[in-house]
Amino acid sequence: MPADLACREARAAHAAPAATHVRRGVRRGPRLAAALALALLLPCALQQGSARPGLAGPFATAGAYSTDFTGFPKWRGMLERFARQLADPDAGDVRVWHAFARSLAAGDRLAELRAVNAAVNAFPYVTDEANWGMLDFWETPIEFLHRAGDCEDFAVTKYMALRELGVAADDMRVAVVDDHGLGTTHAVLLVAAGGGYYVLDNLNEQVQPITAQAAYRPIYAINEHGWWNYGPPPAVSAAGP
């Protein structure tokens, strides 16, 4: 999604050495196979959705839940591309992705949230215009390892890294919010842990409870099973999923 100058400046730092090492490893891998077989992370819910909307919502407003992904072509496209990328387990890019995600295993949920947030946040912020020549493009995690990305790409990469570590889709949501502090639209990852939701944010090195993020007003949230609309402005027109 487009980000204003304040958001861009907030993520203008250079990548950490570990992130640079990962990106070099990706570049050395062979080209991704154009396989059409389904991969592990392509959810059957993409067609019909889950019957269960997951845990109690993270926001004061419950949100209208739906399993209809018709209005989310960028989310669906990202899932489908990622599935094609993962379909060749011997591809260099896939091996690097698995090694990166699995290196973040930490033994308990909160420790893994901190490890994933820190590792992904080590990559630089890069706008979709600079990366892809368009205003809004939702990257797969493998594309993110190559190019870094903007706020929703950080959130998606964290989501998929935690899926790799065994966190259930129903325990996570990529949330698009109005950031009243920066005056921009922003994306973060919400993860259930210890009876509440925590925020993994590319603008914050700390993993904090959602209750500590008073400046964020939800627009919509989404996972592999469904999505939540938190009211006007309409989710699709507001953030271009």
Percentage of residues in DSSP E strands? 15-25%
The poorly predicted ranges are 2-54, 234-240
Adjacency order of strands in the biggest sheet: 1-7-6-2-3-4-5
Share in helix: 25-40%
CATH architecture call:
Roll
Mean pLDDT: 80
Number of strands: 7
Structural class: alpha+beta
The CATH topology is C8orf32 fold
What does this entry look like structurally?
With 241 residues, this protein is α+β, with helices and mostly antiparallel strands. The protein has a single domain, classed as C8orf32 fold (Roll). It is 38% helix and 18% strand. The chain is built from ten helices and seven strands. A seven-stranded antiparallel β-sheet has the order 1-7-6-2-3-4-5. Helix 6 crosses helix 9. It is globular and about 45 Å long.
